[in-house]
Design goal:
65 residues, alpha+beta, two-stranded antiparallel ribbon, 4 strands
Length: 65
């Protein structure tokens, strides 16, 4: 008998997750935004991108907003 708890389910490696709110999508929707910060890609859903549009246009890292 195995008494170990199984590891949590991992998202499909092709599933995108919003770096701000955690919303997920199976493929990149055209309304989502991609930002490269310190060599790492960050995806933001349309709601988060719209909310933080001024900070994004000012090229602030997402840590600032």
């Amino acid at each position: 008998m195995n008494d170990r708890t199984p590891p949590p389910a991992q998202p499909d490696p092709h599933t995108l997750v919003c770096s701000r709110c955690g919303r997920s999508a199976d493929s990149p929707p055209v309304t989502w935004m991609c930002s490269v910060e310190n060599g790492t890609r960050h995806y933001f859903c349309d709601d988060c991108a719209r909310t933080h549009l001024r900070a994004i246009e000012s090229r602030l890292d997402s840590a600032w907003w």
